[in-house]
């Protein structure tokens, strides 16, 4: 099951019917959310790690609290560390009704890093993850709307949401296993009742047509760096006429623009500019010398790979980078990508000799696509 299927029930139906258009609520088996980010893991980050701002912020009754109320300073090897979370102050503020916001969780919590990577691969748009821990009988933020699409799912407790659409306001009770999608600009607010609440919010920062158009227009406009003449407004008719000539030149260049190349470059930047997914990578590097023809290997959890041919080279877009191999290895790479469980380099024997199979597998381990089964 893909991440989008998990969160929406049916990825294809969701993209056809709700994506960007209407609120969508779905129920997830609670076991499917286990370990993604629950109350024990939130406790761990607050009380047992050196988490810092802006990874954490706090809000209460519609206002963001000053960082000085829940941070401290320390030193390591004589160098200052600022913005460290003071866990005792955080817990005291939480007990007094403040919401704890975990920001950019995909950057420091591996299960959400993998979830976000999978969503990005399916949607083709950048995603991020926050989490909101609210005490009983409290509200962190007033009615507001976001400048991006949101998928929210509950992992602990309960929270009453008020969401607005063209038909007015509606109430949605979020409990563990509830997932809800809100299109960009949907007004919403939420409040706890008798229990605390922890929910994860996945923000989808959808690319806009202007993002793609700018890839073509900006280089043309930026090349027009000659200054306007002195006494600019002394002869406004002349300036207007010259401006028309400049616009005509822009139009001529736009007419000859290579739109296919622009789309390819846009796609390549996205496919190679995501955050790395390298959990266990250190142990894999240490295991590399011992990897042989019968070693058990598998796809790294959360890894992605898109193939693009360019002449005699095959590009493997791994999310955070591009790796190139000879194009005649395409069938072999596709065989690797098709494996759903553990396998050995010997599986590649129909395409490669034993030595070449081990060399390729070692490279794909080093690049983070594969991992050693331990």
UniProtKB/TrEMBL annotation:
Q: Which UniProt keywords apply?
A: Iron, Metal-binding
UniProt cofactor(s): Fe(2+)
Pfam families cross-referenced by the UniProt entry: JmjC_2 (PF08007)
**InterPro entries assigned to the protein according to its UniProt record, in alphabetical order:** JmjC_dom, NO66-like
UniProt keyword Transcription regulation present: no
Keyword Hydrolase assigned: no
Q: Name one GO molecular function term.
A: metal ion binding
Name listed for the protein in its UniProt record: Uncharacterized protein
Q: Which organism is it from?
A: Tessaracoccus flavus
Organism lineage:
Bacteria, Bacillati, Actinomycetota, Actinomycetes, Propionibacteriales
